[in-house]
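Fold in tokens:
===
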Amino acid sequence: MIPFLIYVAIFIVSFFVVNRLIRRAVRTDFTSLKTVTFGDENAVVSDRWASVVSVITIFLLWGMFTGSVLLPKFLHVPGPFKGIATFEYTAATPDGQEDKATVTVLVHPIDQSVEAPEVEPGDGWAKNDSATVGVWRSGLIRVDRNDEMGRDEDARVIAVNGEPIAPGGEVITEFGRVGMSPKGTLNFEPGKGWQMEPIWLPPPEAVVQRLGEIAHEGYRGSTLLEHLGYSLFRVIVGFFFGALVGIPLGYAMGLSNWFRGWFDPIVEFMRPVPPLALIPLVIIWAGIGELGKIILLFLAALWIMAIAARSGVSGVRISKVHAAYSLGASKAQVMRYVIAPNSLPEIFTGARVAMGVCWGTVVAAELVAAEKGAGMMIMVASKFQNTDIVIMGIILIGVIGFAIDMAMRWAERVLVPWKGKGWTSTRCCDGRYSLPGSSRAFATVNYGSWWMVGDERLELPTSSV
């Protein structure tokens, strides 16, 4: 909760700083000249300032809550207590005798082996004690082991630092928590602070160091590039065949009542089924080789691409189709010049979603007897609690996935430049008008009664144009 609140605070502060101070001073882009931007897709672009601050904030929080050496110490959140901790306990016997003694605990890093500090025993029948406890750990302390009157004499601890304590209770000290087990043994747990233990979340420099080691030495007999290459190969092949089958299927469902009725129940039934649930069937049907992994990724992409293509066809404005038919276009020409161009934005959106799902599924796919792959590397490392390797694999998968997504965005901008701009015909050099994305003239209004569909010039009464 604390990291989330800090993240929200940074988001709000950076928003006001960038928009009130920096953007007020520099506003020279075309979007800034628009009077209406809400609801205008072309007016919404990725804010580079927001992207930079967002990435820096994530790494900043990561370093703050792991005590990273990459950050100055004043940015670190409170860490676990290390050093000498002391607390005083009061012991009492059934006949009412009471005595006090001090417990000294050396709290040390968990990767170090240390000896308990030496302490003076004291003058009373309750003797001073010493012990060692690792950071983020807790330890039982038998304070009665060296007392002159212990459990055999029914002596028991009744207070810690002057505060009463009973079996199952606890007392909070400045160094941590002192609890009492049901049998009366004290348990000391040093203060953990807000920082995460490295076994749960290692600092950034530990992940970078592990990345260098695996890049140089490899992991489980394969180089890092081989692991990433196998995962990338599986994802691309599974996505390719999913798109190859899903896009025509979606077009058919969007254009034919029979295809829609036949395949719609299947697609809508399979769409919410997670790919992970199909692993047992894929193993039974296709075995544990590469084919089974690719089939699983194929099924992960298939339904998404089919639904995206169907939505793209269904989203074409009927006025465009009617206009094309009124100008004499055939079904093939309507498909090529109207339906396909207008459905491409939905298909690209579905492709980006399908690619993300495939990357999420490859980790599970590589659980099935995989010897190489980023997912296999992550799952094996998790069994041995090598969290630095797990995070390294996650970051690498995210970077590759982000690069693929950026490439698909670039391809969308190049191949679908008319996205969000509606159907505005483009004037050709000889006075004709063409559809977006096509250099061929499609119709004309201002230059007589002739019009073009493809390479064929046809005559049409002016009233029909």
Observations:
- The radius of gyration is 34 Å.
- The longest strand covers residues 98-108.
